[in-house]
């Protein structure tokens, strides 16, 4: 990842540590619709990224850390406007984007704000986030939307316990970073 990207926001390195704790390791679970995955990057995403770079497609298990970091920022951080979102909200929306896609994560944010959910984080959504009076409460509402979505998935029986644990941890992290009704632990 170019150094300018990593230095673009003070919270980015901390957010990456959180994501890699949740997404670390290699996995090829036949029940996971994402398929072959390395540190949260699925084969399809890795192949697309390499193709855009003019590089030959190769196994995601061979992905280098530098590639992973650029993919995370370009495919998730930039699309959810991580650098512009308030602290706490940014890490929650980023994590949702990594886990279920940026568009889906933005829809959870928009529904939590009471807006129409089109999956695009435009100026109207950004203004509503910034002007929200309690980012801790907003984080809780985003995660409620996400939990509802995850519980409806046919793979919840297999992954549900891990997903719910992740949401609980993410709520604590997000609310510790945020300004609102919940104080940092």
Question: What would your notes on this structure say?
Answer:
By secondary structure, the chain is mainly α. The chain is 60% helix and 3% strand. It is built from 9 helices and 3 strands, in the order ααβββααααααα. A 3-stranded antiparallel β-sheet has the order 1-2-3. Helix 5 runs antiparallel to helix 9 (156-177), helix 6 (102-112) packs across helix 8 and helix 8 (135-151) runs antiparallel to helix 9 (156-177). The longest helix is centred in the last third of the chain and has 22 residues, at 156-177.
Concise overview:
The protein is mainly alpha-helical and about 180 residues long. About 60% of the residues lie in helices and about 5% in strands. Strands 1-2-3 form a three-stranded antiparallel beta sheet.
Q: Segments where pLDDT lies below 50 for 5+ residues? A: 1-8
Helix content: 55-70%
Judging from the principal axes of the Cα atoms, what is the shape? globular
Distance between the termini: 32 Å
Output the helix-strand order. HHEEEHHHHHHH
């Amino acid at each position: 990842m170019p150094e300018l990207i990593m230095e673009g926001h003070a919270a980015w390195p901390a957010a990456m540590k959180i994501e890699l704790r949740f997404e670390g390791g290699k996995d090829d679970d036949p029940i996971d619709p994402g398929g072959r995955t390395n540190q949260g990057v699925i084969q399809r995403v890795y192949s697309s990224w390499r193709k855009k770079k003019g590089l030959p497609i190769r196994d995601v298990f061979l992905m280098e850390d530098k590639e992973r970091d650029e993919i995370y920022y370009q495919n998730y951080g930039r699309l959810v406007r991580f650098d512009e979102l308030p602290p706490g909200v940014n890490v929650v929306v980023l994590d949702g984007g990594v886990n279920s896609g940026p568009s889906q994560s933005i829809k959870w944010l928009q529904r939590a704000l009471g807006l129409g959910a089109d999956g695009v984080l435009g100026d109207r959504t950004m203004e509503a986030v910034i002007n929200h009076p309690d980012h801790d409460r907003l984080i809780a509402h985003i995660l409620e939307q996400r939990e509802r979505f995850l519980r409806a998935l046919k793979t919840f029986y297999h992954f549900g316990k891990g997903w719910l644990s992740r949401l609980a941890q993410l709520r604590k992290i997000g609310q510790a970073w945020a300004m609102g009704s919940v104080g940092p632990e």
